[in-house]
Amino acid sequence: MKLSKVQIESYRQQGFLLLENVVGVDLLVELRAAIARFVEQSRQVAASNKVYDLDPSHSAALPRVRRLKDPHLRDEVFQRLASSDTIVDPVCQLLGGTVRFDHSKLNFKHPHSAAEIAWHQDWAFYPHTNDDILAVGVMIEDCRLESGPLRVIPGSHRGPVYDHHHNGTFTGAIAEGDLGNLPDSAIDLVAPAGSISIHHVRTLHASTNCSADTTRPLLLFSYAAVDAFPVFAAYDLDEYDARILRGQAVRQGRMEALPIRLHLPQKPGADSIYDNQAVRKNGG
Ligand SMILES: O=C(O)CCC(=O)C(=O)O
Questions:
Q1: Which domain range does residue 158 map to?
Q2: Global pTM?
Q3: Cα-Cα-Cα-Cα dihedral sign, residues 87, 250, 263, 164
Q4: To 5 degrees, how large is the angle CA 40–CA 151–CA 278?
Q5: Distance, CA 237 to ligand 1 centroid (Å)?
Q6: Domain of 143: which CATH number?
Q7: C-alpha to C-alpha distance for 43 and 64, rounded to whole angstroms
Q8: Ligand 1 pocket, 218 CB below 6 A?
Q9: Is the minimum distance from the CB of 150 to ligand 1 under 6 angstroms?
């Protein structure tokens, strides 16, 4: 699928796009089946691990997966979608002609359980030499206001990079007070199953809990321009280059004068956004 000039300009100005009914029904059925298999397998798992981030209420009887980590490594259908023209074509247009797949995750919100995501900017988690980086959210089910949709603040990708620390440790959450009345202008990205959202790496975003009776799964894929090199990260070069979906490997990055913050120190072993952000909420 190809974005129009108007859509590209809107992304440049607003820092996000919502595209309805992009992923077809057959693929949605396959994705749901894969997700159901992982949820079923989570019954055998008692604590969060490399694959699952589990809600504290998770049990074999009532599985409560908050996140399936790196779904593109777990089932071919996620990999296929992440590298499909359906997704990568518009991403390529927005990133200026090259695309490197960065990472994926599948976030669940279960009815009435705590899976709130506090305001944050992805840029605070992974600063790069330039900000031609974005995340695509695939709505696996219809996403309504009560599902706890992704919320974005239009134009915030051109504003400051906020402090995501609490008491000197990186929590991945901005203190509400730091944002003033910005959250009043938030847009809720509600759309039918198969729709996708795209948000810029510096766009402020968050989501509330799910007050619906059905679970909200949101599949997220992140992509970067090939010449956006990560700051403070080391990769295996072959693996890094193998993730290029559009364009050629380059050895010279594009450095832009952008504000960045250090995403360190982090609590050792803390890889759950839910637990890390809760530190700020609970004042730990
Ligand atoms: O699942 C959501 O609603 C938002 C997720 C998010 O922003 C993240 O995982 O960084």
A1: 5-282
A2: 0.96
A3: negative
A4: 65
A5: 28
A6: 2.60.120.620
A7: 9
A8: yes
A9: yes
Tell whether ligand 1 has an atom less than 6 A from the beta carbon of residue 107.
Answer: yes
Residue 280, pLDDT score: 66
Q: Is 276 in the pocket of ligand 1 (CB under 6 A)?
A: no
**124 CB under 6 A from ligand 1?**
no
207 in contact with ligand 1, CB cutoff 6 A? yes
Residue with tokens 């944002």: 179
Using the 8-state DSSP alphabet, how is residue 50 labeled? S
Q: What is the pLDDT of residue 19?
A: 98
Residue 21: the pLDDT is: 95
The ranges of the chain with pLDDT < 70 are 280-284
CA dist list (Å): 71 to 38, 61, 133: 10, 23, 19
Length of the chain: 284
State how many domains the chain has. Answer: 1
Report the b/e string of 237-256 with b at 16+ CB within 10 A: eeeeeebebbbeeeeebeee
Whole-number Å distance, alpha carbon 150 to ligand 1 midpoint, is: 7
Torsion of CA 190, 162, 280, 268, to 10 degrees: 110
Ligand 1 centroid to Cα of residue 181, in Å, is 21
